[in-house]
Amino acid sequence: MAALRVARGLFRSCRGVQSVDYDARAVFLGARRPVCTSSSDDSADGVRKAQFADAEVQEILTRITGLDLERVFKPIKRELKPPKYKLMTDAQLEEAVLRAREQAGKLLKMPLVVPERQPIDDVLAEDTILEGMDTAKHVFTDITFSTPHRERFIVVREPSGMLRKATWEERDRLIQVYFPKEGRKLTAPPIFNEENLKVMFRQDRHEEVLNHCLVQFEPDSADFKKVHTLAFEHLEQEAKYEVLRSTRFFGPLVWYLVTRRRVDGLLTDMLQRDRLQDALSLVRLFNLVHPQSDCALQAVQQQATGLDLLKIFADCESQKSGFIKLALQTYEHSGTDIVLTAPQSKPGISAQHLQTTHGELGIPDYRSF
Amino acid sequence: MVHLSSLLLKKYHGGHVVIRMALGGATNRPFYRIVAAYNKRSRDGKCIEQLGSYDPLPNIYNEKLVGFNYDRIKYWMGCGAHPTKPVAKLLGLAGFFPLHPMTVTEAERRRKAALTESKAESEDQEEQGAE
User: Fold this and answer.
1) ipTM higher than 0.95?
2) How many C-beta atoms lie closer than 10 Å to residue A17's C-beta?
3) Region annotation Disordered: residue ranges (chain B) (predicted)?
């Protein structure tokens, strides 16, 4: 029965996406963005800090996210259709499960975490002789189909005669006018107001909101960052990490917490759910991101692995060291055989995926999904 | 019926390609497509290629939206197409062409008109005040 249910879920997902009035399909389609390189950021000491897009970091994050098939292929709201049943041998079922795992890996591709964009205020010409020519401004967009959106020329001629480059908000709006993307509106829908966001968070619908946010905003815009910050802060306060586990936003959530050194809640949650491997990966990630911290230096000195890593972390960094030490003691005394295997190389995100096709900025063309 | 061939202008006697605005839209709501067409064709008739659009009515952000396919405009200009005056003015405002002299002249005329209006208003107010 369970196998049948899983198989049904697989086929529902592997079929073509159905049309639906609300953005579910657009969110599904548009919510896939490729990962790309971000600019390197050396710390003041000359030691290279780990970035979000590093292969090692991505590996750790994908491992922590987990792959709960039931969760990934949860039925999306679509038109009602009777389910299809297929009769399969065991071998065929295994094949189908493998294919489903690959598909789930693709669906779980993490959205970009890039630094916030700098505002554009570039003036191309100041023709004051044109003053008083018109009461409205003229906005000129380059609608050449083959240019990537990031390189498009969008200029504004003000009534004062000044010719300037368009701001980021104007750019997003005009690109949506001339090259509309499915699911994206010209003005941000009211769901992204603070009060409405809070309502959604109270109902534990973080994933929906974040998917919608992905479709609506660019990953380096202020609104995108704001929505993500609010969502992650709420989850951190309520300690509801399970809401985002095995979704594509778990990686960014972990990255957010690790860069702000607030890993305690997540670590305790993992230990409570007996996810020791995940906890170790988390500490390893922390050491990667903060190579100058006490924890990282001691770990390197002692070449610690396994439970020792956790002990060092509990001593140095965490505020809930008591709880972590207790949990570690129970693991030791219970005598369970914890197999601490080396991380296997996953076919998920490799250096090839980090290459892009256009643009010196290295940011891919968002039209290609 | 004029004999037309899209590639060889020799057969189209005396004609040339123009980049001009074709009017569309509805009553009291104009909308222009910027279009490469033979000059003998009707204004809104069959064009060779659409190169952009121009919306003369400002939107809620007080913007008049103009779209130009610069790549293709360059191609047609290279083929010897003539832009009309309004298209040349728009391209001048966009910075693609140098500024059209009539744009500057119009701006000056408007400023003068605005000055005389404000002077006339202030004189009227003075007269009313004196009364």
Assistant:
1) no
2) 13
3) 108-131
